[in-house]
Structure formats: structure tokens, C-alpha cells
Structure prediction request, 312 residues.
Amino acid sequence: MDLLSDHLVRARATGAVFARTVAEPPWGLRLGGSIQLSVHTVVRGRGYLWLDTPGSTVELIPGSVTLVRGGENHYIGHEPGAACLEPEEFRARHAHMGPADNPRATVFLCGAYRFSGDVGAGLLDALPQFMTLSSADDDPLREVITMLSRELVRTEPAQQLVLDRLLDLLLVLAIRSEFRRSATAPRWYRAAADPRLGVGLQAMHENVAHPWTVPELAELSGLSRAAFARVFREALGQAPMQYLTEFRMTLARDNLRAGDLSLAQIADTVGYSSPFAFAAAFRRHHGEPPGTWRQRERMTASTRLLTTHPGS
Prediction:
């Protein structure tokens, strides 16, 4: 498994179609900044997307996809600055229109993604606030958009399942395209393409519990110990063992939040010989034992849930 696949799997990205809409002017939809990642594509017609930030308007046209990272509210409408409704009110107002009812109508899809833990947060942080991708004729992204377009203009059995899978493909292709062209792509993504580092990095990610050493990683990479350590630090900004420890701690935090594994199981999963060795390493890294950290995270999550849903 390559490093991008590894991060996406560990981030446990889950997607859902929350708006498949035909809307005739005037129309507008407000989407909250709590949505971690939104995906928008127009099948027919056109629309506009903008943030609260001045000068952030982009046009949505067939054949393009726009991704919006959470943090700021964003808006979609028939024209920039259009009056926008909340999702429930918007869906109710436009629920009964079919694609053929009005040739002036816009047909579009909005998808929402959630990411789990610190691995997911790292992926999101590497993306710009929003990005629009227009596919070239030979780009697989174009094929996925075409399939989405065809699926959205008719009602078929198992359609929700098809749309979910196409959105998954769309997300992966969009992130891959953005990282490939971006000067601010994560260091691990760029380093994975370096033949001097790719094998060693992949080995660490595939078997994080292995007691890796720099000489062992250097041998896998076909370099001397000193050369591997130097190239690694230049590419990733830290020593190989520091990178491995950071990655182990990231996975440990995600496992602690999930609550599915005991401390002994987490220790074994992330490469420590015993719960005591893991607890000592975690305390050095975070200033408190893993059990205390997990309790605090659970209390924070409960408080956040009560604040968001006070009646629950």
C-alpha cells in the first residue's frame, strides 16, 4: 500500500451524499464550516460558490469539481451573493423538481466527508481552503465526473451505493491531483516519490510495529546509514527515528480516541514491547500517561456533543 492510500485508510474517510438537487433561479444553499470536507460538482447548468472571505467566488460548471475544507461557512447559488437557505429548508423547497422541468435549472451534487483522528486532520490541513479541479480529456477524474453526471439524471436501483462509491473515487483522485501539482503537498507525499526514500517510508508505514533501525531502513533503500539519514532529514525535516516515533504517537492517539483497543493492544499495535514502555514513551511525548489523555479526550468529546446537541 502506498503512503497516500495508507493515510486515507487510516483516516477512515466516510462520505455521504447530502444534496442531489435540481434548482431553478433564484436559489442558494448555505453549508456550515463544521463539515470537514465538501465536494461539489455541477451536472447541468452552472452555479457559483463563495466563502465569507471577499474575492473567494468560483464558478461551478459541468466537468469541474470543487472541494471545500471545513472551518469557514460556504455558499452555493445561482449568482454570487444570492440569498442562501439552510440545507433542510433548501431541500424542502426544491424537492419536487425533476431534471427536465426547467431548462434553466441547475443540476448539482454536494457530498460531505468526515475524517477520523489526527491522520485525517493531517490530510485536511494539507489541502487549501478550497480547490477547483477541471479534468483533462485523458484524466480519470473526467471519467468519474461523467459517470456521476449520468447517474444523477435518472433514478436507478442501488443508486445511493453507486453515488457513494463514485464520491470515494472522486475524493481520492482530487486529493491525488492536488498533491501532485501543489508546492505545499505533505513532505511524506513528496518523499514517497523519491527512489532513495520511498521503500524505507513504505516499510515503516506497512509495519509500524517492527523495531526498525536506521541501518535496516538504509539497507532497504540501498544507501549507507549516513546517506539515508541525511537524505531523510533533508526531505522530511526530521531524523528517521523521530519520524517513526511521531507516526506511532499519531496512531496511538487515534486508537485511544476510538476506544476499541486496550492499552496493551495499542502498545503492541504501534511497536512497543509492553504497556509500560508505551506509557513511558507517550508520557515523554505528551506530558501525561495515555490513560489520562484518553479520559480527557472523552470528556472533551462529551462536552462538545452536549454543546452541539443540548437536547440529546
Remarks:
- The first strand starts at residue 14 and ends at 23.
- The CA atoms of residues 148 and 163 lie 7 Å apart.
